[in-house]
């Protein structure tokens, strides 16, 4: 990230040593508290249904809103980080998360849960997670890739521990007291944020360096003022507002890249479509198991199995995909992982016995590890790094939209049919179709670019072209991405 890199050039200390490792430990805890938390919501699905007499569709809106806001609040978080700094935003997120879950324990209707646990807790988790990952870019330069890989293990730890803790507290205290305790646990994000103290540069603070980056954006206004225009002139003020608004959209929502970059366009559409089915097993696996006679404790264990396997498989997948053999071809590995996710869902349809569900969780976890490790790596392959942050903003907002509507629509289908197997049919449809769309589209795009390059080479040098072949890859995907910070939020 630009600010992190700027920080790296300012001073070599205390980066990559000393207090930086405490910050890394705090980042691991943060990712476990924020990204790992939504995985346990399915354990409360049946109890919330009975408490509020709600349908599957109504109940599934609660985790859908939480996950959608967690993913889609990135641009807002980026604005707050630029204005107030990472430490403040992490602590603000922890306060919102804790407040949301404490308020949820007093809710009298399912719609109130949408606001408290869904919107407030989801937004707080987004702030803590995104700002916590951003601060690693300030504290680590040489070991930045390692730091992000270690921090991402917090997600898998959260996937493992949250379901076990949730089932124990639910059995002992009920869902209201459990949500109250969750509020206290999530307040520990504030403690993690307190550890992430700002790094002072030779020329000042990180916040000051961030502000100096914003100065060039006002050059057009300064030019007009130098030509004699009054700063209070209504036309100039209106023009300045439009310019700043356009600059903000261009910075955080890269619509121009979406229109011009075919690779980014295909990938964004594919992932957005994929998210319609990706989150469904997380929401409905536990209710499906309980509905088919599996004991509640064993049903909660299924989510923990997914998280436990992720701890080991996700780093291995990241290392494998980083090999030079896969440079420019990671999109095909990603499509293969999505395809395996979709095919694994048919195991649930065959049988709902606990032993079969364990097999399903093992295969699903391996495939999910590939999806989680590669999502943003592939995005770096198809987008130039100087526009990555703005491309990421549009990418996360679009995927959060389908994350929001996928589970409720599937819940409506279950309400109509009274058959939980349609959850896994639906998930498989979206995942398999998205995998085939991305894989085949990128294959066609690669062939088209090769033909274009070959045709160009033939026109430039027709006498030598007959003796040599030119093998190229699409420019957007052939360059090996530099060692930069990326967020694995899936």
UniProtKB/TrEMBL annotation:
GO terms for molecular function: monocarboxylic acid transmembrane transporter activity. This is MOT6 protein. The keyword Transmembrane applies. It is a multi-pass membrane protein. The chain crosses the membrane at residues 21-45, 61-81, 88-106, 112-139, 146-165, 177-196, 266-287, 299-319, 331-351, 357-379, 391-410, 422-445. It comes from Setophaga kirtlandii. One of its GO terms (cellular component) is basolateral plasma membrane. The keyword Transmembrane applies. InterPro entries: MFS, MFS_dom, MFS_trans_sf, Proton-linked_MCT. It comes from the Eukaryota. It is found in: Membrane. Residues 20-451 form the Major facilitator superfamily (MFS) profile domain. Keywords: Membrane, Transmembrane, Transmembrane helix.
